[in-house]
Amino acid sequence: MTVVQLVQKIIEPYPESAALKTHIYAPESPLMCLCLDARGFLFGPLLAQRLGVGFVMVRKKGKLPGATVSVAYNLEYGKAEAEIQVDAVTPGQKVVLLDDLLATGGTLFAACELMKKQHAEIQGCMVVIELTELKGSDRLKPYSVFSLVQY
């Protein structure tokens, strides 16, 4: 399956982007697609383009130019830091987080923590693959998690 086919599969229940926008967030407020380093960048921009909204990259520390805000988090095998540019998301802005894989939820949880720091409104998380046995979606509560494929 190509990336374009994957994005089409994610949004196929919504024939018009306006219907998808209504499903994800209140139409009076802008939405940003927040995509996680690096495979989230494969389909995040396509979804953002389809929705007619902005695209923000969450990167590993030290990869973004300019002023950034970061959060440290634990991985199964160590520690890491994720960051966004400080002016990428404004307070009160509605965001949806996108990634390729949800395993233990550490990276998506860190992205949620970044959004809390920015006082953004998290509308939910979307992933291509969810490894359900690892219960990563439990770590992301109270946010909703949409996964295309579950194993």
UniProtKB/TrEMBL annotation:
EC code(s) of this entry: 2.4.2.7
Domain of life of the organism encoding this protein: Eukaryota
Main location: cytoplasm
Record Pfam families: Pribosyltran
Keywords: Cytoplasm, Glycosyltransferase, Purine salvage, Transferase
Membrane-spanning segments: none
Subunit structure: Homodimer.
Domain called Phosphoribosyltransferase: residue spans: 19-148
Localization annotation: Cytoplasm
NCBIfam families in UniProt: PRK02304.1-5
Pathway connected to this protein: Purine metabolism; AMP biosynthesis via salvage pathway; AMP from adenine: step 1/1
Reactions it catalyzes: AMP + diphosphate = 5-phospho-alpha-D-ribose 1-diphosphate + adenine
Cytoplasm in keyword set: yes
Organism: Hippocampus comes
Protein name: adenine phosphoribosyltransferase
Any one GO MF annotation of this record: adenine binding
Family as reported in the entry's similarity comment: Belongs to the purine/pyrimidine phosphoribosyltransferase family.
GO cellular component labels: cytoplasm
Enzyme class: transferase
GO biological process: adenine salvage; AMP salvage; purine ribonucleoside salvage
Task of the protein: Catalyzes a salvage reaction resulting in the formation of AMP, that is energically less costly than de novo synthesis.
InterPro entries xrefs: PRTase-like (IPR029057), PRTase_dom (IPR000836), UPRTase/APRTase (IPR050054)
